[in-house]
UniProtKB/TrEMBL annotation:
Organism: Agrobacterium cavarae
Keyword RNA-binding carried by entry: no
This protein's name: AraC family transcriptional regulator
Domain annotation HTH araC/xylS-type: ranges: 129-234
Keyword list, A-Z: DNA-binding, Transcription, Transcription regulation
Secreted recorded as keyword: no
Superkingdom of the source species: Bacteria
Length: 239
């Protein structure tokens, strides 16, 4: 089991792709779209002895929000959608590695993806939109993305001009995770980069803003399902 603070959007190309998600076992077949919500624990394995092939992309919730402009982040029940519009848009992004997508084309597809997700989730609500302070939450997200040091909700409250509990609620609605989880994942992303560049575990943990190496290792293993050392070994073997 592991999690991402991004959307995981994919398509099964052949076979049966099984995963545990929100207390249920889901089986993805060709012709559907997998949409795992940010920060939701899941795993993945073949559903039959024949194995499976798939492609998946990890899309930042902030990119979806850049299109939605403050409407609640779309949630696909069950993690799999049969919506043909969503499948068509996802296929534009899930390209072969030999056919890279151009930045302009990606932005165009991203706009369609955000709207297709919203339509498939059927969660458009003007009342909800009025209740969510997107501007304040986006200020908080940018602040957390740029600063690995410890912060508090009280500090974010001062920076954003919104009371801490409303900000915490809105952040979850808009970006699919809590402010603390978002900061933790930014720190872990920094740790990955430093480990790939040759830093030691203790130095990477300190530079990324963790209290110590043990704290970082616990958070890393909880998020990615493997220890930092094991992850680094697998990364080197894959090169």
């Amino acid at each position: 089991m592991h999690r991402h603070d991004t959307y995981a959007i994919g398509c099964t190309l052949s076979g049966v792709q099984s995963f545990r998600y929100r207390g249920a076992v889901c089986n993805s077949l060709p012709g559907g779209t997998i949409v795992l919500h940010p920060d939701e624990p899941h795993d993945g394995q073949a559903g039959t002895d024949d194995g499976f092939h798939y492609r998946i992309a990890y899309v930042e919730p902030s990119e979806i929000q850049a299109v939605l402009g403050g409407r609640p982040l779309p949630f696909i029940q069950g993690g799999i959608s049969a919506d043909l519009r969503l499948l068509s848009v996802a296929s534009r992004i899930l390209r072969d590695v030999d056919d890279p997508i151009e930045p302009f084309e990606y932005e165009d597809a991203l706009f369609e993806l955000a709207n297709a997700l919203e339509a498939a989730a059927n969660r458009v609500s003007l009342r909800q939109r009025r209740l969510v302070n997107y501007a304040a939450a986006e200020i908080a997200r940018q602040y957390l993305a740029e600063r690995p040091e410890a912060v508090t909700l009280e500090q974010l409250e001062t920076i954003c001009g919104q009371d801490r509990w409303s900000l915490s609620r809105d952040f979850r609605v808009l970006f699919g995770t809590s402010p603390y989880r978002y900061l933790t994942m930014r720190r872990l992303a920094a740790v990955k980069t430093m480990l790939r560049d040759g830093s030691g575990l203790a130095d990477a943990a300190f530079s990324a803003g963790f209290a110590d190496q043990s704290h970082m290792t616990r958070q890393f293993s909880k998020a990615f399902g493997v220890s930092p050392g094991r992850w680094l070994t697998l990364t080197r073997e894959a090169r």
